[in-house]
Amino acid sequence: MTAGRRDRKKAATRKALADAALKLFLERGYDNVTVKEIAEAADTAVATLFAHFPAGKEALILDDSGEREASLTAAVRERQEGTSVLDALYAFFADRAPFRLDLPEEYQRRMDLVMSTPALWAYARTVWVACQDPLAALLAEAAGLEEADDSLHALARYVLETPDLASSRPDRGAALAQAFTHLKQGWPGL
Q1: Where are the bilayer-spanning segments (predicted)?
Q2: DSSP state of 167
C-alpha cells in the first residue's frame, strides 16, 4: 500500500531531522550540537523535532520505530529448521554493527559516532534492553511454554547485554562467539 501524502511528509521531516543531526554530530561532535541547531538545519521548529523524536537527541541517531523488536522476532521465528534459538540470535548479532566488518562507509561513521559518544552508547543499550520482555516471550514460545519463566527472562537479558559487552573487547567477534557458547551451555535446550 502506498503511503498517503501526510505519511510521506512525516517521513520526509523525520529523515531531514535525522540527516541534519548526523551531519552536525559528525562535524562537531554530539555534545557540541543543540536540538535547536538540528531543527534549524532541517528547517523545522524545535517542537517539530520533539514531536517526531520525543526521546530527544539520542533518538535522532538511534530511533528504530520498533525495528529492533521486529528483527529479533524475525531472527527467532524465521530461523532455519534445525537451528537453535541461541544460534539464530548469535548469527543475528554477528551480522550487525559493531561485529560486521564490511559496513557501508556512512553506516560505519554512524557506528563509530555511537561507540565514541557515551550518551549515544548508553541510549543504544537502553533501547536494546527494552526488548527483554518480548525476547523472553519469544524464547518461551520456542521452548513450547505458555509464558516466560524467570530463567528465560534472565536469558533474554543476557542475550541483549552480550553485544554491548562483547563490542568493548579487543576482538569483538571472538568475544561475541565465546559469550554465546557459554549461553548455550547454560540453556542447552535453546
Answers
A1: none
A2: T
